[in-house]
Write a structure and sequence with these properties.
The protein is an alpha+beta fold. It has 18 helices and 22 strands.
Length: about 475
């Protein structure tokens, strides 16, 4: 009888239920349910529809039952930084804000009145992003202080959904690190920092590492979905799950988790909280086995996704890659420039940047796509150099996982720009990493090293050298 594992992967634009099995050293994947997601405007704020998302989670569970493939274990991963506040009766307090909401404007200065930016990085190793939970909580303290007074629990988004399934309050480690309130030395809340910032200590739950058994479904959930299941905590931060699935045989490797954002980095046994790392905007997010994901956030395929929306509806990403590869325009843009965050037209923004910097201006969307792909490749190459400098290690290859691993032209120009071999795939790394941790937690797999070997054996990995794709 097969043992099924279920990874529920919630992204900012969609969610899916992925069933996994392990047989003869290989993982088999099956998508059984998918649904849309997105922030919604609520009284002038950008918020998440928690009730709607939980309905979809339960619909996917019911779908497993309908298919006769009932999971024995399951876990949920999502994006980071966003959270839910609960009162003493476990009722949600106020709005569940999304990270793109503008209420955190100016909250960095409020935080720095109590602790300097330099000391905050030295204590946590987390790069400054205005949507980090520390700035979100400061917004609550400044704008809605009664909510903090009434709150009994703070749960990150996946923690909240796990609570609804099991009735257990908890915090998972990898997502907790995105709050910028966790000490990389103790792998626990920095209670002294929390006190200095004036946040109530009682709301911060005990932190559990990936692979922890959280509990069974509540009786109410069992009756609704038609079966019981054990929840095992994956790396609930989606990038943490994706990095767990990197098919690298070596202990230390360069990776890119490639999607709307590109998260490029390596794994370290200890965090690097140096001022030099802060100046380079490198971060130390928590990973599986308490490894640190030492990485940089890069704009990623958001730029290409935006260009695609400006083309005819039947234009695929593969066609964009194919056409971009035929162009010869040499222009390069800074992918992390603020003008590319949310322009009315990405094509116009790229043209404006090239004109402003005295470079050849792309004349159509194919040239624009070529500029973007080559600019991302240049950014990857520069970041690889920075990480090598900081870690004092040389990396002769880059592992690209996630949806962006299917962009052949980007993989090729990355290999050329970085002067390194690129291994691309698997595309479903986040769901696979979620499943791996469940399998390790249930002792189906021994450890992460065995899990990554299983990924290499289970999924096609394409290889690119500077001169072209070889497999």
């Amino acid at each position: 009888m097969k043992t099924y594992y279920l990874a529920i992967d919630l992204g900012a634009s969609s969610g899916r239920h992925m069933l996994g099995t392990y047989e003869n050293g290989r993982i088999r994947l099956e998508e059984v349910y998918r649904f849309p997601n997105g922030m919604k405007e609520q009284d002038g704020s950008l918020c998440w529809d928690l009730e709607g998302l939980f309905r979809e989670i339960k619909k996917g569970l019911k779908r497993c039952r309908q298919l006769g493939r009932i999971p024995s274990y399951m876990g949920i991963d999502t994006w980071g930084v966003d959270y839910v506040l609960l009162d003493g009766q476990d009722r949600v307090l106020g709005k569940t804000y999304g990270y793109r909401d503008g209420r955190t404007a100016g909250m960095d200065e409020k935080v720095y009145e109590l602790i300097s930016e330099e000391e905050l990085y030295a204590r946590t190793g987390i790069q400054k992003q205005i949507f980090n939970t520390v700035y979100q909580l400061m917004a609550v303290k400044e704008q809605e202080p009664q909510m903090l007074n009434e709150a009994e629990h703070l749960l990150m988004i996946p923690d909240y959904f796990h609570f609804l399934l099991t009735g257990v309050h908890h915090t998972e480690y990898t997502n907790a690190t995105t709050t910028q309130l966790v000490s990389p030395a103790t792998k626990d809340w920095d209670r002294e920092l929390i006190g200095r910032l004036g946040f109530p200590q009682k709301i911060f739950e005990e932190i559990h590492k990936p692979g922890t058994f959280l509990g069974h479904f509540t009786q109410e959930i069992i009756e609704e979905v038609g079966f019981d299941c054990q929840v095992i905590l994956p790396a609930t931060h989606d990038t943490g799950s994706a990095v767990a699935a990197i098919p690298a045989p070596e202990e230390e490797a360069l990776y890119i988790s490639s999607g709307t954002w590109s998260l490029m980095g390596t794994e370290l046994p200890e965090a690097d909280c140096s001022e030099e790392g802060r100046a380079l905007n490198l971060t130390n997010e928590g990973g599986v086995d308490f490894r640190f994901r030492y990485l940089k956030n890069i704009m990623g395929l958001w730029m290409i996704q935006s260009v695609k929306k400006e083309l005819e509806k039947d234009c695929s990403f593969s066609r964009l890659c194919e056409q971009a590869a035929k162009q010869t325009i040499p222009s390069i843009v800074d992918c992390n420039d603020a003008m590319f965050l949310a322009p009315a037209s990405m094509t116009d923004a790229v043209q404006a940047y090239c004109e402003k910097t005295g470079q050849q201006v792309p004349q159509n969307q194919w040239e624009t796509a070529s500029v973007i792909y080559n600019s991302l490749a240049r950014c990857y190459a520069d970041t690889a150099g920075q990480i090598e400098k900081m870690t004092k290690k040389c990396y002769d290859c880059i592992y690209i996982v996630g949806g962006g691993s299917k962009a052949e032209y980007l993989n090729q120009v990355t290999a050329k720009a970085a002067g390194r071999t690129v291994f691309a795939g698997p595309a479903e790394a986040t769901a696979i990493g979620n499943l791996l941790v469940q399998m390790i937690g249930s002792r189906k797999l021994k450890d992460l090293k065995e899990g990554r070997k299983c990924v290499r054996d289970s999924f096609d990995i394409e290889t690119y050298h500077e001169t072209g794709r070889v497999s």
